[in-house]
Write a structure and sequence with these properties.
Blueprint: H1 6-14, H2 19-28, H3 40-52, H4 58-64, H5 68-71
Protein name: DUF4372 domain-containing protein
Organism: Siminovitchia thermophila
InterPro entries: DUF4372
Length: 74
């Protein structure tokens, strides 16, 4: 049995999500109608990231987003 790392676990959480259907539902229900920057899909990814890293609050999540490792692009 392979050891599951955080990176592969994070990828596995997104694999069952059909983002084309997800985007269609967001448009149909007008969930992002008044949203300019943080739309539904990135917000979902942030929530899953917070769950995976056991982040306790939005304030702590905000602090984590300015971490150099997260801001670094591949």
């Amino acid at each position: 049995m392979d050891k599951i790392t955080r990176k592969t676990s994070f990828g596995q959480w997104f694999s069952p999500i059909n983002f084309s259907l997800f985007e269609e539902q967001v448009k149909t229900m007008k969930l992002d109608f008044y949203t300019k920057k943080l739309t539904t899909e990135p917000f979902l990814k942030l929530l899953l990231f917070a769950q995976l890293h056991e982040i306790e609050s939005f304030h702590t999540l905000s602090d984590c987003l300015f971490d150099d490792h997260l801001l670094k692009r591949d």
